[in-house]
Design goal:
The chain is an all-beta fold. The chain has no helices and 5 strands. The two termini are about 35 Å apart.
C-alpha cells in the first residue's frame, strides 16, 4: 500500500485590458476595478495497492480523490487492474491512458 498527496495553490492576477504592468495610468480611484485576482488550488490524496502471487498473477487499485479550495470534491483517478507479469494486464476505471503494445513473435 502507498499513501501520498499533492497540494497546488495558485494565485493569478490580470487586468481586463490584458496589461502585464501594474503602473497606475490615471488618478481615478475606480481604475483598479478592471483588475482581477483569482486564488484557486486543490489537495489530492492518493492511495495505491498491489498484490502479487507466486504464480506472477497480480491485482491492484489506485484512487485519487481531490478537494478544491471552493469545497468541491472531485476524482482524478480511480482504477482497478489485474493481470500476469510480463504477459497481460486489464485496467478498468477512470485514469490517464497510455497505449503500449509489444508484439510477441
Amino acid at each position: 500500500m502507498k499513501l501520498y498527496g499533492d497540494v497546488e495553490f495558485n494565485i493569478d492576477a490580470s487586468s481586463k485590458k490584458h496589461s502585464s504592468t501594474s503602473l497606475k495610468t490615471t488618478a481615478d480611484s475606480n481604475a483598479n476595478r478592471d483588475k482581477r485576482l483569482d486564488i484557486n488550488g486543490r489537495v489530492l490524496i492518493g492511495l495505491d495497492g498491489l498484490r502479487t502471487l507466486e504464480n506472477k498473477n497480480y491485482a491492484g487499485f489506485s484512487v485519487q480523490p481531490l478537494a478544491d479550495l471552493n469545497g468541491k470534491m472531485n476524482l482524478d483517478d480511480a482504477v482497478f487492474f489485474f493481470g500476469q507479469e510480463q504477459d497481460w494486464k486489464i485496467k478498468v476505471g477512470r485514469f490517464e491512458a497510455a497505449v503500449s503494445y509489444t508484439p510477441h513473435f
